[in-house]
Amino acid sequence: PSIPRHTNRLINEKSPYLLQHAHNPVDWYPWGQEAFDKAKKENKLIFLSVGYSTCHWCHVMEEESFKNKEIGEIMNKNFVCIKVDREERPDVDKVYMTFVQATSGGGGWPMSVWLTPDLKPFVGGTYFPPEDGVHRVGFRTVLLRIAEQWKENKNALLENSQKILEALLHMSEIRVRGQESPPPSKEVMATCFQQLSNSYDEDYGGFSKSPKFPTAVNLNFLFTYWALHRTTPEGARALQMALHTLKMMAHGGIHDHIGQGFHRYSTDQRWHVPHFEKMLYDQGQLAATYSRAFQISGDEFFADVAQDILLYVSRDLSDQVGGFYSAEDADSYPTMASREKREGAFCVWAAEEIQALLPDLVEGATEGTTLGDVFMYHYGVKETGNVSPMQDPHQELKGKNVLIVRCSPELTAARFGLELGRLGALLWEGRRRLSAARAQRPRPHLDTKMLAAWNGLMISGFAQAGAALAEQEYVSRAAQAAAFLRRHLFDPTSGRLLRSCYRGNDNTVEQSAVPIQGFLEDYVFVIQALFDLYEASLEQGWLEWALQLQHMQDKLFWDPKGFAYFSSEAGDPSLLLRLKDDQDGAEPTANSVTVTNLLRAACYSGHTEWVEKAGQILAAFSERLQKIPITLPEMARATTVFHHTLKQVVICGDPQGEDTKEMLRCVRSVFSPNKVLMLADGNSAGFLYRQLPFLASLERKDGKATAYLCSNFACSLPVTSPQELRGMLCP
C-alpha cells in the first residue's frame, strides 16, 4: 500500500472503526477533553460523526465525503470534528440519537450532529450525499450553511440549543409516578401477545413486512407465553408463530448456508436478501433461542441450527485468549485484484461458478443430472441471479445468487429421483466445496474489539446451548470466555467492569490508554451470562461474581427517586443526559433483562430487596407495558417471572454421581421459564450453603440424588426419579 498522505489523531486509538478514519484529510479528534477545549478556545462548533465499523452507509459517507480533500478543508476550517465508535461509547451515541430521532423523525448511522462548544446539539441527521441532489441537500452545502449561521446568529443558536436540551430532558424521563405498582402480568402478556399476533407474517414468519430483523426477544416472549398457556389455542398459536419464524429464518438467505451464522437483517419479506454484516449479539441470542426451540419441540432441526451458529462463532469470531470479537463486515473485495469493495461479495454466487465447482454426474438420479443441478435446485439458484433489482439498489448483486432453501428435502429428492439420505450427503458435499472455494476470496473486515456486554450475550448462548443440547464443550467454551472477561474486562481492585478491550499484535489483548468504564448493559448481560453459566456448569464461583457485580450495578446506576437503572453512571460532565432505554430491539434493553437477573439473584442469595427492585422497575415502565408492550417484549416476559415467583429447583446429590447427572439432565431438557437450578452438594462451607441456610435442612432420600421444588424458601416433598421431577416442572 502507498504511504498515506494524511494522518490524524485517530491513529492513536484502538477502535477498528476509528482507525479506519485515521488517514482521512479531516482533522478528526476522538471524543474527549482535547477536542472540547479546542472548541471552547476557538469558539467553534463541533461536528460529531458516529458510526461503527461494519456499517455500510458509514463506509459510503467516508468514501464520498470524509476522503474528499475539499470537503475536509471546509470541515477543518469551520468545525472541531469528532469521531465516535457507537459500540465503544453507547452513552454518547444514545444522547445524540435521542436528539436526532426527536427532531427528524428517524435515526440511524452514520449519525451526523452539529453541537455548540458546550456539546448541546442543534442540527442533526444521518447520511448526507456529498453534493446537492434532486431530493436531498448535500453535505458540503449543509456544512457551509451551518458555518454561516454560527457567524450570523450565534446567540439565537445557543438559546435554541438550550431549549432543545430542556425538551429532551423532559421527553426522555422514565420514572415512577406517585404510588404505582407493577402492572398485572396477565393483562401485559395478553396485550403483548395480541400485538405480536396482529403484526405476524403468516407466510414467512417474523413481525413486519420488510426489513425483517431476527428479533430474539419476540420469540422468547412467545415461548414463555406458550409455557403459561400450553393447553389453550392462544398458547398453541404463540408456539407455532415462534417455531415457524425460526424455520423460515434458518431456510432464508439471512442464514449463511456455506459459512454458518446469521446476517444482521433481511431487506425483504422472505428473509432472502440480507444486509450481510454478522453481529456477535445476534449469534449469542439466536444460539440460545434455537436451543430453546429444540428443548420445547424435540426437533433436531433447531439443535442443528444452534450448533451451526456456535461453529461459526468458534471459528470466526473467537480470540485465541478466549474473548469474542464484535462483528464481520458486509463489504469485501470480490477478488484479490479488485479495487472496490462490494456488499455481500464474500457470500454470493454466480450460477456458472457453482456448476464449475459441482460438475460430477449423480449416479442413480435422472439422466445427466449433475451435483450442481441438484444443489442449484435446492438453494434457488438461477442462471441470471436470484436477487430482485428492488433488493439491490446499487446493482452490486446483479447476476449473483443468495442461497435460500426453496424446497423441502423430500421435494428436491423426488424431483431427481433420489433417496433422502443420499440427497443429504450430496448437499453436504456441495456446501463443503463451495466453502473451500469461498476460502480463496478476500475476507470481509473483522472488528476485533471485544465488548463486555456482547461477550455476555455470547456466553449465555454457549451456556444455554450446552445445557439444552447436553454438549459439555459448549459449557467449557462459555467458561473460557467468562474467565477472559474476568481477566481483561474487570478491575478487581475497584470491583468494576470495563467496556472494551482489543486484539493487539501477536494475539495479545490491549486496553486503551484510558479504559472505558462499563455501562449498565455490560453489567446486566454479564450477570445474566454468569447465572446461565452457573446453571450449565454448577461452578459456584460464577454465582459469587454475579452477585458482586449486581451490588456494583445497584451502586453505579440505580435511580433512587424515579426507580429503574440509568444506562450510564453519574459524574461525566460531557454527557448531557442520563437516559433509560425503553425499547427491546436487536438487543434487549438492560432494564428488561435486569428484572429477571434481580429475581435470580434473590433466589441465590436470599436478599429480598432485589425482588423489591425488580417490582420498582416494572412500576417505572408500567404505562408503556400496559399500552405498547410489543416495544418491550422481554420486560413483558419478566412481569410473569415476577408475579409467578421463581421456583428454586434444588438437586441434592454428589456432583459426580450418575443419579445426580440424570436428575440434572432432566431439569435441563425441560423449558420452564420460571425456574432457577441449584445443586446442593452437601458442602456446608460452600458459597450457596452460606447464602441460603435452608439448604442445610434438605437431604438425600435413601442416599439417592433427590430433587426439591422450593418457592419463597418453602419446599415440596422430595422426589428421586427423573419422571416425577419432569411432572413437577411441566404441570
Helical fraction: 40-55%
> Low-confidence parts lasting 5 or more residues at pLDDT below 50?
none
Question: Distance N terminus to C terminus?
Answer: 66 Å
Major sheet characteristics: 5 strands, mixed
Spatial order of the strands in the main sheet?
1-3-2-4-5
Structural class of the helix and strand makeup?
Answer: alpha+beta
Say how many strands there are: 21
Please compute the radius of gyration using only Cα atoms: 27 Å
Strand % is 5-15%
- So how many helices? 27
What spatial form do the alpha-carbon principal axes imply?
A: globular
Give the averaged pLDDT, no decimals: 95
Pfam families: Thioredox_DsbH
Domain Spermatogenesis-associated protein 20-like TRX: 7-168
Organism: Thalassarche chlororhynchos (Atlantic yellow-nosed albatross)
Protein name: SPT20 protein
